[in-house]
Design brief:
227 residues, alpha+beta, Immunoglobulin-like, seven-stranded antiparallel sheet, five-stranded antiparallel sheet, 23% helix, elongated
Length: 227
């Protein structure tokens, strides 16, 4: 009689238990595991040196705190994800609308007026709004004799100093004024349409992609234009 060796048989020829329950604990110590270990510790303790009550309470307190912190972290992560989803939903509604953001550049579409806001902290005189090409070449200067403290709206119709139409594109904008007896540069905010929204990763938040101006954080938006 010949006996064949089974070492070369495929594992597929052996019966396997398809109903095997996977280990869902992944090595994590659950509350039941902790109390089982604590019970074993009490059962096998040295009768002459029993565990003190304060030691037992300390162990239970430490585990409860660790378990509570773990649960808190899980809940906070879920809350953060929910907040991020809500923010993303709100930001997506901005696509196609114009938003006001701080910028030293503005976009001229060739059709619509380019609009912006200058925020003066105090009364200003001899205000000059300079429109320049990307290479610094002067296109137009808008002069305003006097402006009260507060927000001042301005528009550019896309023409140069000779009243000639400029091509669509991105232009630099610079503002300076006399405030308190000194000539100072003044920050500018411009309106630009939102082309898309990017969802940040690793806690970077949500980014709005503006036509011609690039990416801006949602927190940078000062105003939303619904007109």
């Amino acid at each position: 009689m010949t006996i064949n060796a089974t070492n070369g048989l495929s594992r597929d020829l052996y019966w396997q238990d398809d109903n095997k329950v996977p280990d869902r604990n992944n090595g994590a110590l659950t509350q039941a595991d902790f109390f089982a270990l604590l019970t074993q510790q009490l059962a096998f303790q040295d009768p002459t040196k029993p565990v003190e009550n304060d030691q037992m309470i300390a162990q239970m307190t430490n585990f409860t705190m660790a378990d509570g912190i773990s649960s808190l972290n899980t809940n906070f992560k879920s809350f953060a994800e929910s907040m991020s989803s809500n923010q993303a939903l709100q930001a997506s509604s901005l696509v196609g609308r114009s938003v006001l953001v701080p910028s030293s550049e503005m976009v001229f579409t060739g059709q619509d007026l380019s609009r912006g806001i200058i925020d003066f902290e105090q009364r200003a005189t001899n205000v000059r709004v300079r429109i320049e090409k990307p290479n610094g070449e002067l296109v137009q200067t808008i002069t305003i004799p006097e402006v009260a403290a507060g927000k001042f709206d301005f528009v550019w119709d896309g023409t140069n100093s000779k009243d000639q139409d400029m091509p669509p594109g991105v232009y630099k904008i610079k503002v300076d004024a006399n405030m308190g007896g000194e000539n100072q540069s003044v920050p500018v905010m411009v309106y630009a349409p939102v082309s898309s929204v990017s969802l940040g990763q690793s806690g970077k938040g949500i980014t709005l992609n503006l036509v011609g101006l690039g990416a801006f954080k949602l927190a940078d938006v000062r105003e939303i234009s619904y007109g």
